Amino acid sequence: MLVAQSRRGALHVPAARAFCYHRGVALVEVRNLTKVYPLGQNVFGGGGHGEVRAVDDVSLQIEAGETLGLVGESGSGKSTLGRLVLRLIEPTSGSVSFEGKDLVSLGHGELRRLRRDMQIIFQDPFGSLDPRFRVEDIVAEPLVIHEPGSRVTRRQRVRELLRAVGMDESAMPRYPHEFSGGQRQRIGIARALALRPKFIVADEPVSALDVSVGAQIVNLLAQLQREFGLTYLFISHSMPVVRYLATRIAVMYRGKLVEVGPTDKITTHPQNAYTQSLLAATPVITA
């Protein structure tokens, strides 16, 4: 995992950010969101009693142009919340609105049209790319689905996307197994950018990468945010990574949000005991 000092010395993330949206405007609003999974039965018919509240009555806002860092230990419900926000899984109760539209109440057709504005970067760069597809087809797939057009136009767009993530067109005819983990994650990011989305859920995008490669991906995400005016929900179990990238931090524990606030306030004056324990467990590099 990325390890860095609180002075932001180990990772180079430029401080100045030029967003395309007016700050203070809620792009995403979550109200009382809950996801309950019933406990399954075993092969003998036992079990099945009780439930697991993976996400428990969560409410939050994500402002246009910001990065909200969602941090917590494994199993805290972070990834489930990210998928609920995109309606990749259905909530048990509560609501999610995007630009004022209630995603939970949208029909399939309306939701499909809205998908172009909301994308996800997955945690596992090895499992999130179809090994049977060439890079060109992987990156172009959203365009084929949402923007029917000529193959020549799509190919040019793929070239542009690959350049944006630090790769070139020589990658287009190759397959995912020919690339390193960091390169595969760049390909996944290019795919997420294909439809020029406004909002991206980045679900632990550097947790499967080594430190130096993960740092490059974090810097890339910061650069792309400035260039494309993106809004991020950045999910991580690493407080140092979130500290570097996030405008605000939301701390999740056992399905609940226990603390939300500006990054500097959360990292220097945490109010919740769980947040304090996360910060206390953060390694610090000293000169």
Tell me what you see in this structure.
- This protein is 32% helix and 23% strand.
- The protein is of the alpha/beta class and 287 residues long.
- The model is unreliable at 1-22 (pLDDT under 50).
- A six-stranded mixed beta sheet has the order 6-7-8-3-9-10, with helices on both faces. It has a four-stranded antiparallel beta sheet with strand order 2-1-4-5.
- It contains nine helices and ten strands.
- It has helices spanning 78-85, 108-114, 135-146, 151-164, 181-193, 211-228, 239-245, 263-268, 273-280, and strands at 26-38, 51-63, 67-71, 93-98, 101-102, 118-121, 199-203, 231-236, 248-253, 256-262.
- The two termini are 19 Å apart.
- Strand 9 (248-253) and strand 10 (256-262) form a beta hairpin.
- Helix 3 packs across helix 4, helix 3 (135-146) runs parallel beside helix 5 (181-193) and helix 5 runs parallel beside helix 6 (211-228).
Task: Give the secondary structure arrangement, pairings included.
Elements: E1 26-38, E2 51-63, E3 67-71, H1 78-85, E4 93-98, E5 101-102, H2 108-114, E6 118-121, H3 135-146, H4 151-164, H5 181-193, E7 199-203, H6 211-228, E8 231-236, H7 239-245, E9 248-253, E10 256-262, H8 263-268, H9 273-280
Parallel strand pairs: 3-8, 3-9, 6-7, 7-8
Antiparallel strand pairs: 1-2, 1-4, 4-5, 9-10
Helix pairs in contact: 3-4, 3-5, 4-5, 5-6
